[in-house]
Amino acid sequence: MLERPDSGETCFLLHVGLKRPCYADEIQEFQSLAVSAGAEILGEIRARRDRPHPGLFVGQGKAEEIAHRVKEVCAELVLVNQPLSATQERNLEKMLGVRVLDRNGLILDIFAQRAATHEGKIQVELAQLEHLSTRLVRGWTHLERQKGGIGLRGPGETQLESDRRLIGLRIKHLKGRLKRVEKQRELGRRERRRGRVPTVALVGYTNAGKTTLFNALTGSEVMARNTLFATLDPTIRRLSPGELDEVLLVDTVGFVRDLPQELVVAFRATFTETREADLLVHVIDVSDPYHADRKHQVELVLDAVGAGKIPCMQVYNKLDQVKDFSLHAVNGSSLPKAQVSAVTGEGVEDLAEAIRVRAVGETMCGSLVLGPEDSKLRAKLFDLRAVKAEQGNSSGGWTLEVALTAKRWKELCIQEGLSDDSFQRV
Ligand SMILES: Nc1nc2c(ncn2[C@@H]2O[C@H](COP(=O)(O)OP(=O)(O)OP(=O)(O)O)[C@@H](O)[C@H]2O)c(=O)[nH]1
Ligand SMILES: [Mg+2]
């Protein structure tokens, strides 16, 4: 049996561009991923190939150069920015004498570190096992011991079963458990649908400030951190509690380019919150020099998870970090945009109002004259907390000062046979 080298926290990065050089934003993103996994970067190297070398991904000469550099800086781990086949991973490890992990493995490791809830943990384990099952070659003995280090965390390594059949059984078992959790989630969503409470999901590139903005909008204190994938599990809260018409806001997992397929599949339930939202709020970090490209990457992932058609409002965040930012400077579509700083609170109130208007419509203020026979409707308006003041009139009826959304008004018109003429706008 072939023993794979141990892993560790000090790493060497290999950036390979296929048919083109690596772009600066990809390099920066890969560095952030490594740091987010807890790695210390001791060195890096770039390479360019027309197509991957089947055995080593890079050429023999390059691999030798990497081996030399890795030894020089004493790195414990080599991270490669491209997906490697099991064979390439093993061959590189043999040649370099250290553990090798590809980008998907690295992202899975970050997710494994972050998973906090029951659902999150099952999803990550499932994704890891699916990833593992595609690379079940030789070299299984390392799985029988529990070790630390990047790429070795999470259930993959505590998994004692060392054959494909057992992994298959475990995957089946996890899928069953996930289905049960999904069912619960579905019940929650059905409740919300029944109550016709509009749901708004915050989406965006990882670290764009979604959770910080979520906290600012809802008055919550969900953990936000300057690291990639700080949020894994969706949180749902009321937007501006106490408001007339309820809107629910969902904070969701952040995106990166080329999210590993295993994760997209395993996190299907998490993405359902996004997919079933009535409105998406796409949070964009203006202080990020690559925000335009990342915005595009988010749109690609939204398409991939089936949320590409939901109306989307773009919000430019971290305004406090840039001088003279102007929305006019942002090219592109005519979709509504907003600019905020989730940290200083600038623009947050306006954003809350804009979200509310998009989700439930404009508020209509005016007076409504009701006859004595309308007492049921009057009670309904009180229930909706739409009545601001009322006055009895001589005929036994009432004149009500009301404020309610256009959407509610339309519903009332249909249910109660009212006409628009009965409403005197102020
Ligand atoms: N200066 C500044 N920093 C911000 C602002 N909004 C968020 N941040 C910071 O950006 C970092 C990431 O914020 P999060 O809210 O965790 O970002 P996220 O989009 O939820 O990230 P993930 O959950 O990892 O996808 C944190 O360090 C925040 O303090 C802002 O308006 N201005
Ligand atoms: Mg977050």
- Total beta-strand segments: 14
Poorly predicted spans = 138-146, 157-161
Question: Helicity range of the residues?
Answer: 40-55%
Average predicted confidence as pLDDT: 83
Beta-strand residue fraction: 15-25%
Q: Which compounds are bound in this model? A: guanosine-5'-triphosphate, magnesium ion
Largest sheet: 6 strands, mixed
End-to-end gap: 82 Å
Q: Strand order, biggest sheet?
A: 6-7-5-8-9-10
Gyration radius (Cα, Å) is 27 Å
**What is the H level of CATH, i.e. the homologous superfamily of the largest domain?**
GTPase HflX, N-terminal domain
Number of domains: 3
Structural class: alpha/beta
Give the count of helical stretches: 14
CATH architecture descriptor name of the largest domain: 3-Layer(aba) Sandwich
CATH topology of the largest domain: Rossmann fold
Q: Could you say which overall geometry the principal axes of the C-alpha atoms support? A: elongated
What's the CATH C level of the largest domain?
Answer: Alpha Beta
The secondary-structure element order is: EHEHEHEHHHHEHEEHHEHEEHEHEEHE
Topology summary:
Elements: E1 10-18, H1 24-36, E2 40-49, H2 60-73, E3 77-80, H3 86-96, E4 99-102, H4 103-114, H5 118-133, H6 155-158, H7 164-194, E5 199-204, H8 210-218, E6 235-238, E7 248-251, H9 261-266, H10 268-275, E8 279-285, H11 291-304, E9 312-317, E10 337-339, H12 348-360, E11 363-370, H13 375-383, E12 387-392, E13 398-405, H14 406-416, E14 423-425
Parallel strand pairs: 1-2, 1-3, 3-4, 5-7, 5-8, 8-9, 9-10
Antiparallel strand pairs: 6-7, 11-13, 11-14, 12-13
The protein binds guanosine-5'-triphosphate (GTP) and magnesium ion.
Magnesium ion is lined by residues 210-211, 224, 230-231, 254.
